[in-house]
Amino acid sequence: MSGFELLLLLSPPVIVFFFIWSLNRRKKISFKLPPGNMGWPFLGETIAYLKPHSAMSMGGFMKEHMSRYGKIYRSNLFGEPTIISADAGFNRFILQNEGRLFECSYPRSIGGILGKWSMLVLVGDMHRNMRTISLNFMSNARLRTHLLAEVERHTLLVLSSWKDNSLVSAQEEAKKFTFNFMAKHIMSMDPGRPETENLKKEYITFMKGVVSPPLNLPGTAYRKALQSRSTILKVIERKLEERLQNSNGDRRNVEEDDLLGWVLKQSDLSNEQILDLILSLLFAGHETSSVAIALAIYFLEGCPEAVQQLREEHLRIVQTKKETGDQTALTWDDYKQMEFTQCVINETLRLGNVVRFVHRKAIKDIRFGDFEIPSGWKVLPVFTSVHLDPSIYEEPQQFNPWRWQKGSSTAATSTSFMPFGGGSRLCAGSELAKLEMAVFLHHLTLNYRWESAEADEPLVFPFVDFPKGLPIKLLLQTNIHK
Question: Each residue of 245-279: b (16+ CB within 10 Å) or e?
Answer without folding.
Answer: eebeeeeeebeeebbbbbbbbebebeeebbbbbbb
